[in-house]
Amino acid sequence: MRITAVTCVKNEGAFLLEWLAHHKGIGFTDFLVLSNDCDDGTDRMLDRLQEMGELTHLRNDGPYDQAGVQWTGFKTADKHPLVRKADWLMTLDVDEFVNVQVGDHTLGALMDAVPDADAITMTWRLFGNGGVVQYQDRPVTEVFTQAAPPVMYWPWRAFMFKTLYRNNGAYKKLGVHRPRAPVEGKVEQTQWFDGHGRALEARFRKGQIFSPFGRENYGLVQLNHYALGAMESYLLKRARGRVNRTSEPMGLDYWTERNWAEVEDTSIRACDGLRDAHLDRLRGDAELAKLHENAVAWRHARFTQLMGEEPYRALMGRLMMAPPARPLPINAARMLLQYAQTTART
Fold it and tell me: Between the N and C ends of the chain, which has fewer C-beta atoms within 10 Å?
């Protein structure tokens, strides 16, 4: 069974090996990685990983269509044999880690838990900054352990999911959160399940991108989303820009909605043993180790450069002053959701 992960990256060299080792360990068999306009040597790391047989690397250096870098990359990936011949597909970002909670913590155990599934939604579990100021070359899953509570009502982005789905012809195109271009006559037969093992309503087959509010969605699997990282890393992320938008710079608004520190969640550490053999092999390659070291040095130098600009100094100060996010009372959250739904109808 071939399970292919597709991702688009820019300047992620310092985090790439951990992410790749983790997802190899839990059962992804193939990786199609598209790089764009990298400054830190991520593209050269991917070239080396391809030489080693660890993944397939495509350059996605432009030109890009109006939808942005990521959508352009996915259009290329749609035509690639790794996508066309896969049994299962999933699009991921390098700050997202699949965290299977059942059995031996592999994708095989997850599929055994929902054997009738054609698609499994993995709801984000947002991991906050935890007060970490300086970027360190340590595994993300070990540094950041404070997360959103299992049940919330707001913000709706906290419930967005990514989808692991069977490549059975029911969808023609990859999407950021879910497969796109449903095929009439086939999509109606697909069975969708959530990360808690519940069968989902028919509406999920064609358009939904977030899980229902006010209930736990993580019984079988969750998607650990380390969207912020250290404060220093967040400045680099803002400078890089969003991969699926051409505007909307990330500021304190993005930070506030994702900086959760309500509960301690170290469940992903159960996957350390699955990860470590792959990580040791990758780190053992001298060329790859040097490229990783260079990517780490680039991050430190880039942060110093950004702090020479007043907008980034100001943002850094605001990050250090901002408290973690807190759940809204149910009544307040319901009020916001009511207004959101009213706006959507009009």
Answer: C
Q: What angle do CA 61, 303, 37 make, to 5 degrees?
A: 5
Q: How far is CA 293 from the centre of its chain?
A: 23
Confidence band for 346, pLDDT divided at 50, 70 and 90: very low
Q: If you ran DSSP here, which 8-state letter would residue 246 be given?
A: S
- What b-and-e string marks burial along 183-209, b requiring 16 or more CB atoms within 10 Å of the CB? eeeebeebebbbbbebebeeebbeebb
Backbone angles phi, psi at 224, to 5 degrees: -65, 120
Alpha helices in 79-179 (DSSP H): 81-84, 107-113, 140-143
**Cβ atoms of 174 and 196 closer than 8 Å:** no
- Please tell me whether the peptide bond between 63 and the residue prior to it is cis, using omega within 30 degrees of 0: yes
Range of the domain at 320: 92-284+293-345
70 lies in some domain: no
Q: How far is CA 68 from CA 9, 17, 36, 319, in A?
A: 13, 26, 11, 27
Tokens of 277: 């053999």
CA dist., res. 101 & res. 215, Å (int): 17
> Considering its fold, how many domains does the chain have in total?
1
Looking at the domain assignment, is residue 98 inside a domain? yes
Q: How far apart are CA 241 and CA 169, in angstroms?
A: 34
Q: Do residues 188 and 205 touch, judged by C-beta distance below 8 A?
A: yes
Segment 53-99, tens digit of pLDDT:
999 999 998 788 877 889 999 999 999 999 999 999 999 999 999 99
Q: Is the pTM of this model over 0.90?
A: yes
